[in-house]
Write a structure and sequence with these properties.
Number of strands of chain A: 16
Strand order of the largest sheet of chain B: 4-3-7-1-2-6-5
Radius of gyration of chain A: 18 Å
Largest interface: A-B, 35 and 30 residues
Helix content of chain B: 10-25%
Structural class of chain A: alpha/beta
Structural class of chain B: alpha/beta
CATH superfamily of the largest domain in chain B: Nucleotide-binding domain of ferredoxin-NADP reductase (FNR) module
Order of helices and strands of chain B: EEEEEEHEEHEHEEEHEEEE
Radius of gyration of chain B: 18 Å
Number of domains of chain B: 3
CATH class of the largest domain in chain B: Alpha Beta
CATH topology of the largest domain in chain B: Rossmann fold
Strand content of chain A: 15-25%
Strand order of the largest sheet of chain A: 3-4-7-8-9-10-15-16
Helix content of chain A: 25-40%
Strand content of chain B: 25-35%
Oligomer: heterodimer
CATH class of chain A: Alpha Beta
């Protein structure tokens, strides 16, 4: 057995596999199908200060080795989360992490402050990269000034582990990563979805209600590996890699590119137990390759 | 309790052009499935198919412990499913969704199906009979070719048929059926519908006019099937809700139709 426990800026995880926001509900939806406590961390659905209805249907289109979505941050707001959902998830014995989104720095900070008070939420993931709402954060995530403005505001309000999720829809993801590190982020996670579009040629209409959406799944994996590699050369804070991971071997690629942990998103839709299978697979791979700990392979690509 | 496991294919039948009927079995009994619930199938051997395919439960044969799925061939995924062989295994996530309202003894329920939407009504009808309720089927199709496995429906309850080309039963849509006429001798307590949206909207309108309780089964495009991805939402009086989890069956009064 190799040592696959990780410590992401104070966030201790039994294994480096987390489930990505928006793909695993609040964990409870998967409780019949996988032992939640065997997952390193569960990042719950994007939460905003006020309730959001999200975008109109259709919100999803299948694409080659992936899918587009334009859900648009549908959620019942942070107060509902604290009152009704938190009590149901607080005793799950793994890291329950909340993904926080907003439309202005003040909203982000207020939402984060409310979650700061929840004892059993050890970290938040700040979504400054949602492509599906006009003011859904991506406006912040695509400029270094915007990104650091939001992160600074949240850093004041939030005292535990602060992970910032980065968008790949930028000219230089390294520049954005450096700016959020300077603004006080404890770790970065990347990548969020890539902006995409699909058209139903018979109907001459876009497949998604708001025309464009975020592309996820194995189709984006090489882009994600490249982003992780570039960011790992730019910052000193831990990196959580995600983008189309379906197997342990996919995860190993991210570690070698410089990720300290990974998230699985769209893969949860194909196999609800994929996160635990990937964690076991990472262990086996390390054993088979004579590695005593995960650290031996993190960032081995120079 | 939901499960995700490999089920064994025991029969692959072709009841009509463009349809495949898969019969699956397992070591564990299929006791926990409600009529109107669905499964999500992982499709192998179809490079263009990435997500699971949601398919309604057509029938549960408790004696043989078989789960039957009646599938219309519409794209690459369903075509790959039609090429399965006896002995193959199929990864299935089930049972999903809420299912139709459970029957109570003595009530008469009209089950209206259109096209491949007739599929889940067979199992629902069987469960209604089990609950000592009385199912009456009203099944519509483009032509007699789309009205498949009628003998099975007839073994469970009375069957009325409409076809758009008049090749069987009343000519026209299900709403043109004699059984829905004011003068019809057949009376029922409520209606359950599964089929194309325009058909369901028409039946819902009819039910509202007559003051009959009516539920419909939706088939919005979905990914996870578990209420996590929020892709398959329908607008309801309670806001956007997941068809996969809070549906697929909805009381028509809850929908913004």
């Amino acid at each position: 057995m190799s040592d696959i426990s990780v410590n992401i800026a104070g966030l201790k995880m039994k294994n480096p596999v987390m489930t990505a926001s928006g793909t695993f509900g609040y964990g409870l939806e998967f409780a019949d199908l996988v032992n939640l406590e065997d997952i390193g961390g569960i990042i719950v659905k994007g939460t905003t200060l006020n309730p959001r209805e999200g975008n109109d249907y259709p919100r999803m289109a299948e694409t080659p080795y992936g899918m587009l979505n334009c859900v648009g941050l549908q959620n019942k707001g942070v107060d509902y989360f604290c009152k009704n959902i938190y009590p149901q998830i607080k005793d799950i014995k793994t890291n329950m992490i909340v993904n926080v989104s907003g439309s202005c720095p003040e909203d982000y900070a207020e939402c984060a402050a409310k979650i700061n008070d929840l004892e059993n939420i050890p970290a938040i993931e700040l979504n400054i990269s949602c492509p599906n709402v006009r003011q859904g954060g991506m406006a912040f995530g695509v400029t270094t000034d915007g990104a650091s403005q939001v992160v600074r505001a949240v850093r004041e309000a939030y005292k535990k582990t602060l992970i910032v999720k980065l968008s790949p829809n930028v000219t230089s993801i390294s520049d954005i990563a450096r700016s959020v590190e300077d603004a006080g982020a404890d770790a970065v996670s990347l990548i969020n979805t890539l902006m995409g579009m699909s058209i139903d040629i018979e109907r001459r209409k876009p497949r998604l209600s708001i025309k464009t959406g975020g592309l996820s799944g194995p189709a984006i994996r090489p882009v994600a590996v490249r982003c992780v590699y570039q960011v790992s050369k730019a910052v000193n804070i831990p990196i959580i890699g995600l983008g189309g991971i379906m197997t342990a071997e996919d995860a190993i690629e991210f570690f070698m590119a410089g990720a300290n942990a990974i998230e699985i998103g769209t893969g949860n839709f194909i196999d609800p137990a994929i996160s635990v299978k990937v964690a076991e697979g990472i262990n086996s791979w390390l054993d088979a390759h004579g590695c005593k700990s995960l650290n031996e392979i993190v960032g081995v690509i120079d | 309790m939901k499960q995700c496991k490999d089920l064994k294919v025991v029969a692959v039948e072709y009841p009509s052009d463009g349809y495949v009927l898969l019969k699956l079995t397992d070591d564990m009994p299929f006791t926990d499935i409600r009529g109107g619930q669905f499964v999500e199938i992982k499709v192998e051997g179809s490079p263009k198919t990435f997500l699971r395919r949601p398919i309604s439960v057509n029938y549960v044969d408790l004696e043989k412990n078989e789960l039957h799925l009646l599938i219309q061939l519409v794209g690459d995924g369903t075509r790959a499913l039609s090429e399965l062989k006896v002995g193959d295994s199929l990864n299935v996530l089930f049972p999903l969704g809420n299912g139709f309202t459970q029957g109570t003894a003595g009530e008469k329920v009209l089950l209206v199906g259109g096209g491949v939407g007739i599929a889940p009504l067979l199992e629902y009808g069987r469960q209604l009979v089990e609950a000592k309720a009385v199912p009456v089927f009203l099944l519509g199709g483009r032509s007699s070719k789309n009205l498949i496995m009628l003998d099975q429906y007839k073994s469970i309850g009375e069957v009325y048929v409409t076809t758009e080309d008049g090749s069987m039963g009343n000519k026209g849509f299900v709403t043109d059926s004699d059984v829905l006429k004011e003068s019809s001798a057949v009376k029922f307590d409520r209606i359950s519908v599964c089929g194309p949206k325009p058909m369901m909207v028409a039946v819902a309108k009819f039910a509202k006019q007559r003051g009959i309780k009516c539920e419909v089964s939706l088939e919005n495009m979905m990914a996870c099937g578990l209420g996590a991805c929020l892709c398959c939402v329908e607008k309801t009086v309670r806001g956007n809700v997941c068809v996969c989890k809070e549906g697929p069956v909805f009381d028509v009064n809850d929908l913004n139709w």
